[in-house]
Design goal:
The complex is a heterodimer. Chain A is α+β, with helices and mostly antiparallel strands. Chain A contains 27 helices and twelve strands. Chain A has five domains: 174 residues, no CATH class; 273 residues, no CATH class; 66 residues; 79 residues, Roll (SH3 type barrels); 82 residues, 2-Layer Sandwich (Alpha-Beta Plaits), CATH 3.30.70. In chain A, the strands form four sheets. A five-stranded antiparallel β-sheet of chain A has the order 8-7-6-5-9. In chain A, strands 10-12-11 form a three-stranded antiparallel β-sheet, with helices on one face. In chain A, strands 1-2 form a two-stranded antiparallel ribbon. Chain A is elongated and about 150 Å long. Chain B is α+β, with helices and mostly antiparallel strands. Chain B has a single domain, classed as Sandwich (Immunoglobulin-like). In chain B, the strands form two sheets. Chain B has a four-stranded mixed β-sheet with strand order 4-1-7-8, with no helix packed on it. In chain B, 38% of the residues are buried. Classes of the chains: A alpha+beta, B alpha+beta. Chains A and B meet through helix 4, helix 5, helix 6, strand 4 and helix 19 of A and helix 1, strand 6 and strand 8 of B. Chain B: Keywords: Signal.
Amino acid sequence: MPSVSRQTIMLFRLLRFVLVLAIVASAQLSLGAVAQRLDQAPSGLIADQQKILQDLTAKSDNFEKKIQEDGEDDASLVDIRLQLEEMSRGALNSALAFRPRLTEINARLEQLGAPPAEGQPPEPDIVTSERQALASEKAEINAVIAAAQNLSIGISGLIDKIANMRSELFRNLLTKRYVLSDALSPEVISDANDEYAGLYKAVSSWLTFAFKFKFQAVLAATLTALSLAAVLFVGGRRLFGRVFEADPSVEDPSYLSRLSVAFWSTLLPTLAVGVFLVSTVFFFNYYNVLRGDIGVFLNALAAVVAVVFCVNRMTNAALEPRLPNWRLIPVETGPARWLVRLTTAMAVVIGINYFLSVVNDTVGSPLSVTIARSFVATIIVGVILILMGLLKPFRAADGTWRPWPAWLRYTAVALGLSTIAVALLGYIGLAIFVSRQVVVTGTVLVTAYIGFLSARAVSEEGSFAKTSIGRWLSAHSSYEESALDQLGLVVSVAINLMIVLVFLPLILLMWGFQPGDIEAWGYKLATGLTIGSVTISVTGILTGIVVFIIGYFLTRWFQGWLDGSVMARGKVDPGVRNSIRLVVGYIGVALAALVGVSAAGIDLSNLALVAGALSLGIGFGLQNVVSNFVSGLILLAERPFKVGDWIIAGQVSGTVKKISVRATEIETFQRQSVILPNSDLINGPVGNWTHRNKLGRIEIQIGVAYGSDARRVHEILLDIARNHPLVLKNPEPFVLFAAFADSSLNFEVRVFLADVSNGILVQNDIRFAILDAFKAEGIEIPFPQRDIHMRSTAPLAKWPTDDDQVEAEFAEREHARAKAAVPQPMIGRRKTRRPDPA
Amino acid sequence: MWKSLVAAIALLAVGGSAFAASAVNKDAETRTLVVTEGGGKTELALAAGETAEFCPNGCFVTMPNGDLEALTGSETIEISDGVARIK
């Protein structure tokens, strides 16, 4: 199977892919390397680049041959393509190296000017010769760049060719038909025997070699790998033990804990085993223990062991044959055991078949062996699939066994039958592809699905607090239930993300995409994906976002430092502090956004285009918002009031709580928060009781009865005002003899207070004091009173006796008036009028 | 919140087209650049005053005066009086 060979290498490749993603951010730096080459002597430059290009050309010629030779091997084609892409970049870079020199030459040629036309005075020889020298150097450089261009075109052609060859290969793999009668002849057995002997010889000779000469290295490598895996496994068990171990004593575990146990108990041990295998292979390579084909065998064996282990773990975790309580799918114990066995058997068959295919490829055994082996494997897988479909895993209430739901049963049986049928028809490639996908993709998908389910269960309300992590957190930290709930949401998003990141590449790998493909996609995605004329660069955008977040937190920190340390100790007025803090915050965020946008590599002029188009709409739509925003800035700069001031704006009177960019929050004395748009505060009059200071005047009106001693009253009131402790001596209290009112002589006590917010208290005190003093002095505070003087008049006119006559006269008068009111011409007009046509 | 995030990213992506190289023709007549990119040559004709974006991933360009230059894909080419300058 060329399309899926060397699968263990893909683990390394995957690591490399992650590394590439991480490094790509610094990819632009590689252009800097080009710039450094420029300091070399110009003549050396041409020779150097020519040399580089010659090397690249030779390499590409080699690859062209190799493509023809290795046309059957998908992995090596992908590898060649990656190297070709690298070479293409190399060719471009080597052409780029001439840029500064070309600029110099062009500038100098411009300075020299055009050669003199005929009839003009000749120029000095030195100028002519310099121009010629420059022109010839330019021609040389152009030739080298043209070579680079040709090379780049050639490489692109090769890359296209590889793409075509690969799709052709895949088509061939799936559609090629083998003649089974040839493959299944008795000769196959002897061929297989030969192959087995070859494998035995290779392995045994390697074993003797390893134990004789490299025993210590083998021991060291194995032990290092083992200890790595042990650290991972034991550490993981220590950390997450409670999460992923099914506890037999729990009677009725929740769905979430069953899910998470299934998911983690598949993932963690598989990871541990994977680390062990990868590190074993790595250290064996590192200590040069491997020899010849053994490395390939070992890689294949590692892949097989990993897959079989993962499949077995997964089925065990989902079906838990020993602990019925913890089963994810409510099948009976007996069928559960059978299902685990069958799936493991299927994985083993596929694994062995894969391992043998690697051996076949390396030992170079005849095609018939390959076909016979694949045939047997696919038939077994098909039979197992049918068996699984026919299994009756459920038991009804009356004790009878019930089969799977119809769709599942039919899918499994159909898949099994079609695998067998395809194999019998001779399409071995297709059959083996399908059966391998059933096992591997099925396992990966099921694990991913369980992960998704557990992520969903975690995000449900209140469920995170019930998990062991949630319980631990609520015991060891001050998180409340709602915070835990939000944490659960975050965890669920993280799990989803992890599943996509881990399983998507895995599934792609299983479906015959090479690690190189994914690597190339990752590289493209990271550096810029071009759709039409738009280039989307994930790293650029991510960098921008990260830079913005860093800028935002820096701003917040600076704001806090400025406010808390500098201004608080500098005894700056709180209102000014607030203004400065807000303005610093806005400037910081705006700066962070600008830096972030430019770090994302976005040309602001492009945004200006969009903004220009939108500005009309924004101008109309956001008129109010913008006006409030600007008003807010004016408020911060002008500071007609500050936080804590007592202001009166229109109907609202209260204390300013917060000035933000769109609106200002005012708390009335009834403790109602009123949000006033800033433009109202700028455009309308605003009264501020505490603008420069809190000094303020209050007035108390009082009326005394006519007849009281007004001078005595004035004296008493002044006395009361002067003796109140909160009343200021300067400006002096003043008592105004205000009016001779209807029922009283009106006085007004006017006092100034240092803090006008105490006004109500002082008013109370003074009123009580006045009441007491007036009582003591016998001064009366009158009610409103009115004297009514009655004057005697002539007796009323007599009631008319003849009512009927008066009524008749009145009726006649009315009739005459009505007649006069009807206008004469109206009658004539009404006659000429026709009825409506309708 | 997701919607606004998506919208922001889309906007960033639209703005991100600055990754391509751009060419401006400041002359009064049409100028032609020959762009070699990914195995094919295309002629990029620029009308008077026109600006075009091209070559997002590096390419070779033949200037109107016959000079051949390589671009990484972030440059701006300015053509005036038939001479192209790379910035």
